[in-house]
Amino acid sequence: MGGACEGTQDSARPSRGSFSSSCSLRCRVAHQPTSSGASCLLTAGRMNQSQETGEGEEQVTGLVCQEEDLRDGQMKEVTVGDQTVLLVRALGQYSAVGSRCSHYNAPLIKGTLVGDRVRCPFHGACFNVRTGDIEEYPGLDSLPSYKVKVEDGKVYVSIDKKFLNQTRRVKEMCSLAPDIKHTILLIGGGPASLVCAETLRQNCYQGRIIIVTKDTLPPFDKPKLSKAMNLDSSSILLRTGDFYQQYGIEVWTHKEVVSVNPADKVVKLSDGILQQYDQLLISTGCRARPLSCPGCGLQGVKLLQNHDDAKEIHNSCLGRKAVVIGASFIGMEVASFLSDKAASVAMVGTSRFPYERSLGPEIGKMTMQMLEEQNVKFHMNDEITEIRGENGKVKEVVLKSGTVLEADVVIAGIGVIPNSDFLAGSEVELDSRKAVIVDKFMRTNVTDVFSAGDVTSFPLAIRGDQRVNVGHWQMSLAQGRVAALNMLKKPTKIESVPFFWTVLLGKSIRYTGYGEGYTEIIFKGKVDERKFLAFYIKDEVVVAAASMMFDPAVARLAELMATGQIFKKAQAQADDLSWLQM
Ligand SMILES: Cc1cc2nc3c(=O)[nH]c(=O)nc-3n(C[C@H](O)[C@H](O)[C@H](O)COP(=O)(O)OP(=O)(O)OC[C@H]3O[C@@H](n4cnc5c(N)ncnc54)[C@H](O)[C@@H]3O)c2cc1C
Ligand code: FES
């Protein structure tokens, strides 16, 4: 295929599908400043915090500890100049990288180290401790890596002065070469498309990349929409306009693909434009399921899908009566965020407790109490039958039980539907839910058509390749990367362990694995005290875990699962949790 040069940056490591650095870019490269390779030895040697010249560049070097201070498998935060650095002794070697996660700046020292990679305690991003390269998402960027020298039993870390305040590192990427006539079209402006585009450029693909999105914004941080609904659009963008320009990535906003013709390799846009492609990514995600009861079309009935929705919901709920339909992840986050802003917040759910099926009744009950303490009124085991209005606007919500709730705004979070309607007639195979069926390489049944993210139904490695459809930010990023590598004929399988999080009143629940069909939950800590770890058991094996204030247990389990380890119910039952660093 055209456009890919012989870069070797992203060849997969079979054990856990991670990727290495050092792209042998035999192409035109738009280099971002990066710190050079990890843990190489310095030739110069001065003690304590000092400045020195190495390879013609000014460096700050610090004596950070004695060699015996760290045992193998340990990490330590040290300071060099004003920079906090994560010093690691792994597999017998010292190395040093940035200390903060490139996603939301979590301190990686509180994460978990397995082999030569550290996993963030917050949302599971992984970084190679030698290169600083990101190996698992969320987060887009890598960490800076620093030079380490061990001499006479002392450990020194050196930082090039020009990188002193750099806390993250964009991987090397090439840009567009106009003479290369090859186009990869990415339908959807979510994280799957963005990472696909970046991975292509990191791997020396110099053809044309077009991201086509219905959204008004280029790729943005969607999970923030329900956690802080009043953010400026500029603060949620994943990349700036300059970034796309620098790397020759076209982002077409306000454009909807209405059909795909794989025989001619053409997509049709809603404005009638036909766009040719050589390879295609379908990463159109899911849309919120709308309400279908009488009155659902009244003014004030809202879904949360994009930045405009978040702003509108926030503004229209200030000092007004909000009713949230659906006591699961989106609904609970929205209710939590609005609890101190709306005049009243009522929550309607069909189960006994929020998240009852996914997280279980104990956690659901506890989260319900958390929100009740903030005056959210729950109407569980009930459902909406009608929305009544006045002058075209929402006035009341009627429930099956007969309860009538006063309402100015109704927000529905009742599930999602894959955005795949435009594939009708394309021969791209869909499952019964209308999710796009892909194999481990993110290939659809149609040649040169790939799919990634929430819209897919894919084989999940940790569940024996059971076909699943999960809506996790991290998994969408991971699939975007895998799709890109396979487009470039670098065979790579999707092997990521699912990881997601949700935030209620400033407290996070972290979750890893795939718990569907679990038959038992084993708890550590106390759910009532909001400090717990829950193991989900199926067929005597731990298939998933959730936690609150119990770091880094969930990150640790995710990392152990990523190495192929299987944990039995007996291990979850045991008092000794040292295998989870607890
Ligand atoms: C409010 C909210 C909060 C969330 N919070 C979390 C969280 O805390 N943790 C977590 O793990 N996950 C969370 N998620 C889920 C997470 O956002 C998704 O898993 C992720 O965004 C999926 O990425 P994607 O690239 O597959 O698709 P999406 O991000 O959904 O992007 C799909 C893109 O395709 C575009 N599109 C659709 N159809 C067409 C078409 N025909 N033509 C052109 N463009 C089209 C859309 O406009 C959109 O740009 C949240 C989701 C929402 C809505
Ligand atoms: S802060 Fe590290 S993964 Fe989110």
State the gist of this model.
By secondary structure, this protein is of the alpha+beta class. Helix 1 (191-202) runs parallel beside helix 7. The chain is globular, with a radius of gyration of 25 Å.
Helicity, as a percent range: 10-25%
The count of β-strands is 41
Q: Could you name the ranges where pLDDT drops below 50 across 5 or more consecutive residues?
A: 1-47
Put simply, the count of helices is 9
Written account of the structure:
By secondary structure, the chain is α+β, with helices and mostly antiparallel strands. Helices cover about 15% and strands about 35% of the residues. A hairpin with a 6-residue loop joins strand 10 (about 115-120) and strand 11 (about 125-130). Helix 1 (about 190-200) packs parallel to helix 7. It is globular, with a radius of gyration of 25 Å. Mean pLDDT is about 90; it is low at about 1-45. The protein binds flavin-adenine dinucleotide and FE2/S2 (inorganic) cluster. FE2/S2 (inorganic) cluster binds next to loops. FE2/S2 (inorganic) cluster binds near residues 106, 120 and 124.
What labels would you give this structure?
five-stranded parallel beta sheet, alpha+beta, 33% strand, 582 residues, binds flavin-adenine dinucleotide, disordered N terminus, seven-stranded antiparallel beta sheet, binds FE2/S2 (inorganic) cluster, 9 helices
List the helices and strands and how they pair.
Blueprint: E1 12-13, E2 18-19, E3 29-30, E4 50-54, E5 57-66, E6 74-80, E7 83-90, E8 93-98, E9 112-114, E10 117-119, E11 126-128, E12 134-136, E13 145-151, E14 154-160, E15 173-174, E16 183-187, H1 191-202, E17 208-212, H2 241-246, E18 249-252, E19 257-261, E20 266-269, E21 274-276, E22 279-282, E23 286-288, E24 301-303, H3 307-317, E25 321-325, H4 329-338, E26 344-348, H5 356-359, H6 361-372, E27 376-379, E28 384-390, E29 393-399, E30 404-406, E31 409-412, E32 416-418, E33 436-437, E34 449-451, E35 456-460, E36 466-468, H7 473-487, E37 499-504, E38 507-513, E39 520-526, E40 531-538, E41 541-548, H8 553-562, H9 569-573
Parallel strand pairs: 16-17, 16-22, 17-18, 22-34, 24-31, 25-26, 25-31, 26-27, 33-35
Antiparallel strand pairs: 1-2, 3-15, 4-5, 5-14, 6-7, 7-8, 8-13, 9-10, 10-11, 11-12, 13-14, 19-20, 20-21, 23-32, 28-29, 29-30, 35-36, 37-38, 38-41, 39-40, 40-41
Helix pairs in contact: 1-7
The structure holds flavin-adenine dinucleotide and FE2/S2 (inorganic) cluster.
